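Re: adenosine-5'-triphosphate structure - here you go.
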Amino acid sequence: MKPVIETRQLSKHYGAGDTLVKALDDVSMVIQPGEFTAIVGPSGSGKSTLLQLMGGLDTPSTGEVRLSDKAISLMSGRELSDFRRDHIGFIFQAYNLIPVLSAAENCEYIMLLQGVPKAERQRRVDAMLARVGLEGKAHRRPKELSGGQQQRVAVARAMVSQPDIILADEPTANLDSQTGKDLLDMMHELNQKEGMTFVFSTHDPMIMERASRLVQLRDGRIEQDDRRG
Ligand SMILES: Nc1ncnc2c1ncn2[C@@H]1O[C@H](COP(=O)(O)OP(=O)(O)OP(=O)(O)O)[C@@H](O)[C@H]1O
């Protein structure tokens, strides 16, 4: 199977000399379609840095990221932003919804940029909001929704443009444990039923328990990489 994302000897350094920080240090890994991967490790071990580089939101100091077998470094800025838009869904700890747009409009936005026709946009938004349990709340703005509901909108927004992979940076960190569990159940179901590939950066034991693969980072390096079942 063609990997969704591959990193080759990826490093990200900040500063120099005595103040050099190796946020990521020689990380090579392959994410296969259908995986439900948790990247774990102590605070400062490089989890967010790895996710940002994997999604082409940041550039490495050395090494390479390949998305669907294409090297990011060979893409122009425009090509990369189009590629990200069309192939990668992002979910962030702080939800990052657009406050002035409704739940439905937040989901519709990327499809507008993709040029998806209106009727198709509407169909996909309705189906996806129902899928994440938000039917009836399509017209609410983020501030009229709870944290868990906002994160559900973020999952719907990430899924609705039919990406190859969802990169989720500590998606449950701001949620109480029951709301976090419900959200995780929903993402796990999307993985199991629809084969959506997920990579999480997380401290959440519930995500670690469900993950099909656990990658442990320490000081910017992979300490352990276990696939289960
Ligand atoms: N812009 C930056 N400038 C300097 N150092 C940075 C920068 N961004 C990250 N770092 C450093 O890189 C290292 C890895 O940071 P990163 O945010 O990836 O860790 P993390 O594992 O996601 O941590 P947490 O679990 O606390 O979110 C840390 O030592 C951090 O201080």
